[in-house]
C-alpha cells in the first residue's frame, strides 16, 4: 500500500526515541511508505508510522504518534528506503531500536480532532457508516479514495489518497490490532467487557482457522487468551457457578514490588466457592468475566467481583513458578470458620481482606476512633526508609479522638475499615477517611524515627566489624573450625593410628593441581577427629606443601599412609561449592569377567580405593584411584551400602554406563624453588 498525504504544518520537530521490546512480542509500530506535501511546490517522501499497537513499547513510551516520519533507524538513514527494507532492519535489531523521528507540530484546534487517542489509532469504521466531521479518516477500501476535509480556519489541513500496488495473497489486514483499547463494549451474548479483555482480542485469518473453540458469553477462547497475554506463564480459564450466600473464599494480595500492580491469590478457603477449581496461592488473576485485573491494584478487585455480570464466574489466571517474583505476602493457610456480614459482598466475598497486613507487618495495630464530625488526623503521601512509599499521619488535632486513641504523627496508615491503603494515593486515602462514619477502624504501623534507624545501623556495623576481627584472630589448631573458602590450619591427634583416608592427586594423575580427599574410613584418625570432609583440599602436611604437580601419585599416597607419632597438622581449604568435574564411562562388560575395581561406598557414591589394570581398556584409560562413581546404569549410588553396590556391579552384564565425579581443585600451592 502506498500512501499519499497532503499536509500543511507550521513547524516540525526532530527527536530521538529508543524502544526496548524485552518481555514484549514486538515494538508495536506499523509503518508505510508515503509522500507528504508540506507546501504547494514541495513534497517529502519517507517511512511514516501508520499505527501503534496498544500496551506495546511504542505506545508506552508516549513519544510516538501516528503520522510521525522515521528518518533513521539504529543510525542508518531510511528516508529513501523501501518499506520492506525498514521492516528487515527492525527484525535484525534484536530487542532494542533507536529511531530518529520527525514530528509535525499541529495547532491546538487540530489536536482536538486528531485521529490518535492515547498514542495509537482509534478503531476503524467497519460498518461503512457515514463519517461525522470529527472523524479524520473515512472508510479506505481497496481502490477507493478518501478525502479528509477540515475546518478552513485550522492551521493544519491535509488530504489523503490511497492506491494499491500489489497485495500478497497471504496478506491479512488484521495481523496488527491497532484498535482503541480504552472503554468497554458488549459481546455478542450481550455482556459488557473491557475493550482490552482477551474476549475482544482480534485473531488474524490463520489464527481463526486454527481456533476451533466456540467463544463463550464473554468472547473467551484459549487462543484469544494466549494471544492477549502471550508473555504470561501457564494461563488457565476457570469457571465456577455462583451460589447464593456462599463466599468466594479467597484472600488477595498485591505485588511485592511497590512500583508494580497485580492481583494475586494469597489464600483459598476450603469452604469457599473457589475451593472446587484449580486455584493456588500465588496465582495471578488476570481477568474475571471480561474485566481486566492485570496491572490493576488488588484493592479494587472486591468491587469488580461484586459488580460482575452473569450466573457464573470465569477467571483467567496465570500460575507462576515458586521462585518467580510476585506476591508481597506469604500464603495464607488459616481462614475463619464463618464469614460475618462485613465479609460477605453480595454473592461473592473476599475473605481476610486485611489479614495479610499483619503477616507483612507483625507490629501493626488496630485502632478504633469515634468520628464525631471529624477524626482529627491529617495524612500525606510520603516515603520512609523502613517501608518505602505509603500514607502517613502528618498532624493530629489537639484533644481529638484520634489523639486520645493513641495515634501518633508518623504512623503509617495501612487500612481504613475493610479498605487497604497500602498502595493507595493521597486522594484515595483521604476519600476513605472522609466517607467513613461512626466508629472507624484503622490499622496503623508505628515506625522508627530516622535517627533511631541510623543509630541501629551504626550498632550493626560495629558488630560486623568486631565479628570480622574475631574471625581474623588465629584459631587454636586443635579446635579450629574449618570454614568455607579460606585456608585453615588444624591439628589432628593420631598417636600412631592410621589416618584412614583415600586421596587423589599427583603429576602422573588426572588431578595435578592439588591433593583432595575422596573417602574417609570410619575407623581412621580423621573420622575420629570429625572435622575433615570428602572434597577437602589438603594444601600442606606438617608445614610441608603438597606439590602435586611435582610429586608422583605414589608419593602423594604415601604422605597419608605414614605412621605419625602423636599429632599431624594439615592446612585445609574447603571450596564452596565443591570444585568438581563429572563425566561418563561407557563399555561392554563380558560375562564372568570382573571390572578390576575395589570400591568403598560413602554418602557421594562409591570411591575407587584400588584398581587392577588390564581388565577393560575404557576403565584403564579414564578411571583412577580416588574417583567416585555416582551412578551405575542410571541408578544413583549416593548413600548406598556395600552389599547393594556389590550386587549392582556383580550382576551387571552387557552395556555398562557409569557417571564419575572427580575433584578439580584450583592450584593453591606455590611451585617448589
Automatic annotation (TrEMBL):
Amino acid composition bias (Basic and acidic residues), ranges on this chain: 455-475
Matches recorded under Pfam families: PDZ
Entry coiled-coil feature ranges: none
Superkingdom field: Eukaryota
SMART domains to which the protein is assigned, alphabetical: PDZ
Biased composition (Polar residues): 127-138
Alphabetized PANTHER family for the sequence: INACTIVATION-NO-AFTER-POTENTIAL D PROTEIN, MULTIPLE PDZ DOMAIN PROTEIN
This protein's name: PDZ domain-containing protein
Organism: Drosophila rubida
Amino acid at each position: 500500500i502506498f500512501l499519499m498525504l497532503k499536509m500543511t504544518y507550521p513547524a516540525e520537530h526532530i527527536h530521538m526515541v529508543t524502544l526496548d521490546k524485552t518481555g514484549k512480542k514486538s515494538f508495536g509500530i506499523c509503518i508505510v511508505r508515503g509522500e507528504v506535501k508540506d507546501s504547494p511546490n514541495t513534497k517529502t517522501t519517507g517511512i511514516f508510522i501508520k499505527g501503534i499497537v496498544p500496551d506495546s513499547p511504542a505506545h508506552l513510551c508516549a513519544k510516538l504518534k501516528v503520522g510521525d516520519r522515521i528518518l533513521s533507524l539504529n543510525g542508518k538513514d531510511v528516508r529513501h528506503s523501501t518499506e520492506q527494507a525498514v521492516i528487515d532492519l527492525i527484525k535484525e535489531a534484536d530487542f532494542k531500536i533507536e529511531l530518529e523521528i520527525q514530528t509535525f507540530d499541529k495547532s491546538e484546534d487540530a489536536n482536538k480532532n486528531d485521529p490518535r487517542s492515547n498514542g495509537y489509532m482509534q478503531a476503524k469504521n467497519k460498518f461503512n457508516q457515514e463519517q461525522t466531521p470529527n472523524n479524520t479518516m473515512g472508510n479506505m477500501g481497496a481502490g477507493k479514495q478518501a478525502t479528509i476535509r477540515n475546518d478552513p480556519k485550522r492551521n493544519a489541513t491535509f488530504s489523503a489518497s490511497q492506491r494499491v500496488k500489489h497485495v500478497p495473497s497471504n496478506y491479512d489486514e488484521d495481523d496488527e490490532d491497532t484498535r482503541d483499547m480504552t472503554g468497554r463494549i458488549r459481546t455478542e451474548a450481550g455482556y459488557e467487557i473491557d475493550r482490552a479483555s482477551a474476549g475482544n482480542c482480534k485473531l488474524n485469518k490463520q489464527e481463526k482457522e486454527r481456533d476451533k473453540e466456540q467463544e463463550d458469553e464473554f468472547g473467551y477462547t484459549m487462543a484469544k487468551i494466549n494471544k492477549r497475554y502471550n508473555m504470561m506463564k501457564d494461563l488457565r480459564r476457570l469457571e465456577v457457578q455462583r451460589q447464593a450466600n456462599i463466599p468466594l473464599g479467597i484472600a488477595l494480595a498485591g505485588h511485592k514490588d511497590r512500583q508494580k500492580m497485580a492481583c494475586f491469590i494469597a489464600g483459598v478457603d476450603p469452604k469457599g466457592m473457589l475451593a472446587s477449581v484449580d486455584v493456588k496461592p500465588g496465582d495471578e488473576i488476570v481477568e474475571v468475566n471480561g474485566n481486566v485485573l492485570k496491572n490493576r491494584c488488588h484493592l479494587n478487585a472486591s468491587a469488580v467481583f461484586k459488580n460482575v455480570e452473569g450466573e457464573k464466574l470465569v477467571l483467567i489466571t496465570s500460575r507462576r513458578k515458586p521462585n518467580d517474583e510476585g506476591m508481597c505476602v506469604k500464603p495464607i493457610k488459616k481462614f475463619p470458620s464463618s464469614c460475618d456480614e462485613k465479609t460477605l459482598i453480595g454473592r461473592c466475598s473476599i475473605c481476610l481482606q486485611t489479614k495479610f497486613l499483619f503477616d507483612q507487618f507483625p507490629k501493626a495495630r488496630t485502632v478504633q476512633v469515634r468520628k464525631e464530625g471529624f477524626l482529627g488526623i491529617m495524612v500525606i503521601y510520603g516515603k520512609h526508609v523502613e517501608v518505602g512509599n505509603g500514607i502517613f499521619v502528618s498532624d493530629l488535632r489537639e484533644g481529638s479522638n484520634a489523639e486520645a486513641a493513641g495515634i501518633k504523627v508518623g504512623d503509617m496508615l495501612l487500612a481504613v475499615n475493610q479498605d487497604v491503603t497500602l498502595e493507595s494515593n493521597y486522594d484515595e486515602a483521604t476519600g476513605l477517611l472522609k466517607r467513613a462514619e461512626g466508629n472507624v477502624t484503622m490499622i496503623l504501623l508505628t515506625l522508627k524515627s530516622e535517627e533511631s534507624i541510623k543509630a541501629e545501623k551504626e550498632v550493626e556495623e560495629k558488630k560486623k566489624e568486631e565479628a570480622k576481627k574475631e574471625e581474623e584472630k588465629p584459631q587454636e589448631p586443635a579446635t579450629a573450625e574449618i570454614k568455607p573458602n579460606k585456608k585453615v590450619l588444624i591439628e589432628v591427634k593420631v598417636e600412631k593410628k592410621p589416618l584412614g583416608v583415600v586421596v587423589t592427586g599427583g603429576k602422573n594423575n588426572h588431578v595435578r593441581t592439588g591433593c583432595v580427599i575422596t573417602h574417609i574410613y570410619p575407623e581412621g584418625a580423621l573420622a575420629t577427629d570429625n572435622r575433615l570432609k570428602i572434597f577437602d583440599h589438603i594444601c600442606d602436611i606438617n608445614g610441608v606443601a603438597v606439590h602435586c604437580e611435582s610429586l608422583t601419585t605414589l608419593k602423594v599416597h604415601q604422605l597419608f599412609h605414614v605412621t605419625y607419632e602423636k599429632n599431624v597438622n594439615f592446612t585445609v581449604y574447603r571450596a564452596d561449592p565443591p570444585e568438581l568435574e563429572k563425566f561418563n564411562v561407557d563399555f561392554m562388560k563380558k560375562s564372568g569377567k570382573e571390572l578390576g575395581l575395589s570400591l568403598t561406598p560413602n554418602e557421594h557414591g562409591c570411591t575407587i580405593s584400588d584398581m587392577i589394570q588390564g581388565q577393560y581398556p575404557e576403565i584403564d584409560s579414564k578411571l583412577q584411584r580416588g574417583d567416585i562413581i555416582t551412578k551405575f546404569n542410571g541408578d544413583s549410588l549416593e548413600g548406598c551400602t556395600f552389599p547393594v553396590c556389590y550386587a549392582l556391579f556383580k550382576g551387571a552384564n552387557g552395556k555398562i554406563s557409569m557417571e564419575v565425579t572427580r575433584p578439580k581443585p584450583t592450584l593453591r600451592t606455590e611451585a617448589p624453588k
